[in-house]
Amino acid sequence: MARRPLVMGNWKLNGSKAFTKELIEGLKRELDGVTGCDVAIAPPVMYLAEAEATLASCGCDCTSKNVIALGSQNVDVNVSGAFTGDISTAMLKDFDAKYIIIGHSERRTYHKESDEFIAKKFAALKDAGLVPVLCIGETEAENEAGQTEAVCARQLDAVLNTLGAEAFNGAVIAYEPVWAIGTGKSATPAQAQAVHAFIRGHIAKHSQAVADQVIIQYGGSVNDANAAELFTQPDIDGALVGGASLKAPAFAVIVKAAEKAKE
Ligand SMILES: O=C(CO)COP(=O)(O)O
C-alpha cells in the first residue's frame, strides 16, 4: 500500500521571532512545487503565531504555503483550568497546528514522562482531531542489551492496550533511537528498516489495515547526505528531523529525497 511520506522538522529549543520568519520564508522558497511529500514544522509554541502568519502571508505566487503544515513539540492532557504553564489541544488548534509530537525521548528523560502519561496525551490529541506523532526508541544501553524490540513494543503497547489499534489510524509513529539523536550517528538504513518492520508488524498483530496505513518516520541524525538512502527502505515513510531542520536548504533536500524515493 502506498503511503504518502511525511517529513517533519522538530526545531526543539531554538529560534526567535526573526529566525522563525526567516526560516519559513526560506522553506517556502525551497519547497515551492513539492507535491509528493507532506511537510510539517514544529517551532517552539512561543512562535506559532509568527509561524502561522509567515505561512499565510506570501509575497510571491508560490504554492508552498499550502505544503507546510504547522505542528508542536508537545501538548498537555488537560483542556483548560488551573494548570500553570500547560498548553492545550484547543490552543494548538487555534494556531492551525496539526501534527503534535509526543513522547520525545528528551521529554521522557528530562520531564520524566511515562508511557502511560504519553498514552493520555495520545488520547487527548485523538479527541481533539489532531495528529499524534508518537516518538519511540531505545537508548544505547538498551540497544546493546538487545532490547530494542522489547522497548518499542512496550512504548507502543501503552497506547494499543488503552486506546486500541484503531487509534493509530491517521497517526504517525517516529522511531528515534536515542543513541542516534543529535549524535551525528544515524542508524543505518538496514538497521532502521528492521525496527520499522518490527513496529509495523507489532501493530499488524492487532490490525493489518491500521498497520498498512500508519506512517513510520525515522529520526536521529537525518541530514541532507543520508536521507535519500534511508528513504529507499520500504517501511521508512519519512523523517523527523532535528538539527538539519533549522536550515532551509538542508531540510528541503530531505523533503525532496522523500518525494523522489516514494513517487
Ligand atoms: O530528535 C530528533 C527529532 O525529533 C532528531 O534530532 P537530530 O536530527 O538533531 O538528531
Automatic annotation (TrEMBL):
**Pathway listed for it?**
Carbohydrate degradation; glycolysis; D-glyceraldehyde 3-phosphate from glycerone phosphate: step 1/1; Carbohydrate biosynthesis; gluconeogenesis; Carbohydrate metabolism; erythritol degradation
Q: Name the SUPFAM superfamilies for this protein.
A: Triosephosphate isomerase (TIM)
Keyword Cytoplasm assigned to the entry: answer is yes
Q: What is its main location?
A: cytoplasm
InterPro entries xrefs: Aldolase_TIM, TIM_sf, TrioseP_Isoase_bac/euk, Triosephosphate_isomerase, Triosephosphate_isomerase_AS
Q: What class of enzyme is it?
A: isomerase
Instruction: State which Enzyme Commission number(s) the record gives.
Output: 5.3.1.1
Give any single GO term for biological process.
glyceraldehyde-3-phosphate biosynthetic process
A molecular function annotated in GO for this UniProt entry is:
triose-phosphate isomerase activity
Described by its record, this protein's role is as follows: Involved in the gluconeogenesis. Catalyzes stereospecifically the conversion of dihydroxyacetone phosphate (DHAP) to D-glyceraldehyde-3-phosphate (G3P).
Protein's name in the database = Triosephosphate isomerase
What is the organism of origin for this protein? Ursidibacter maritimus
